[in-house]
Amino acid sequence: MGEQQKTHRVLDSGSRGEAPMAAGGGAEPMAANPESESPWAYDRLMEEVCERGNLKQALKRVKANKGAPGVDGMTVQALPAYLREHWPSIRATLLNGTYKPQPVRRVEIPKPDGGGVRKLGIPSALDRFVQQAVLQVLQRQWDPTFSESSYGFRPGRSAHQAVAQAQSYIQSGYRWVVDLDLEKFFDRVSHDILMSRVAKRVSDKRMLKLVRSFLTAGVMEHGLVGATDEGTPQGGPLSPLLSNLMLDDLDRELERRGLRFARYADDCNVYVRSERAGQRVMAGLKAFLAGRLKLTVNETKSAVARPHTRKFLGFTFSDRDKVKRRIAPKALSRLKERIRELTQRTRGVSVDQMIGALKRYLAGWRGYFGFCETPSVLQRLDEWIRRRIRCFFWKQWKRGRTRFRELTVRGVSRNLAAQTVGSPHDAWRLSCSPALGIALSNRYLRSLGLPSLRP
Fold first, then answer.
1. pLDDT tens for residues 365-392?
2. 3-state SS, one letter per residue, for 258-274
3. Relative orientation angle of helices 375-397 and 329-342, to the nearest 10 degrees
4. Strand (E) or helix (H) holding 249
5. How far is CA 401 from the centre of its chain?
6. Is 170 helix (H, G, I), strand (E, B) or coil?
7. Tens digit of pLDDT for each residue in 64-82?
8. Considering the entire predicted model, what is its pTM?
9. Which of 199, 262, 318, 342 is the most buried (most CB within 10 A)?
């Protein structure tokens, strides 16, 4: 029997209604007729979490997402074997409400815009598996109740849809945006306020206790475990759903006021017809967020402005009668910075390695930012990237004799090759010379696997 089949058999053990065993060897089974004695008789969410099909799906998702180990060092690859041995006792702790998650491991990553670091909390592989199983059950119930204008971390919804919705509002004449940025939202969420929202939707006391235990599991940083009195650590599968639940209050308030908005996680843009209306909405939302949710608006990153001066999920919009999606300047700067890093000759990598790294990065970038409606920008980026690669080749060839040989072998005449090798110009200037255009043609670069940014 294969490893995956063995794991699924173990996950299936005890999941068809029989009395679960308490954690620990030799423990007595729970009451044979829990319906008559258990306070959770009609609260079966945890049983849904432990259902075989749900567990199989959760394990598959966790393995696909990979991810770094948590505080216990267990890798995702080691998780199936661990579950085969320990799942019956783990399942028992979930069903009797005594499961205790481990602290998350603190990891800091630079923010894309260079504005400091984003703190992630990496749960253990086992806790990720349990969170994913819980997420799948709660999301099926909660997601249909969320706002149509909420797009982040929801099945069948995407950032592209949020950007398209924003574009449609602007095109319809709502040409002022209230750009809301919440101050350290994921770090500042009140546990009590969040749990009150969970309790309105969940009556299973075991589930309530489990969700709170994930919130208060603590954070290990520099070898020490610190308490977590607020916030939902980014890095666990459950955090995005809890953030959507918390901000559902904001969505309902915006709908109650009849406002047009698009929200993706904590990034929310409201579209109005005038600056005066925008200032009024901004003031009202600040008061609402502080009073109802105990959240603060970041004054330096929030504004009432014209949409073409702001960015939303990496995009901005043209300031014309026909509104078009454009790539935000900061996103273009980050792309160029990353391309410069990947095409530095001093990295000490081969051409194949450099092209491979470029291919992976550009494929992902194009998959997201190819949604723009400015093909000329993508064409100029393509040209610039090819110049960077020709520069890489020219520097790698180093010596004049090598450069002459490489040019002539690739179809450049001896006379033009000699002129190019003897040129006093630097590598960047020569990267658009006729000789390098012939030797390293667009067709040749495509044959190496270099993708184009144009759709």
1. 999 999 999 999 999 999 999 999 999 9
2. CCEEEEECCEEEEEECC
3. 20
4. helix 239-256
5. 49
6. helix
7. 998 889 999 999 999 999 9
8. 0.85
9. 262
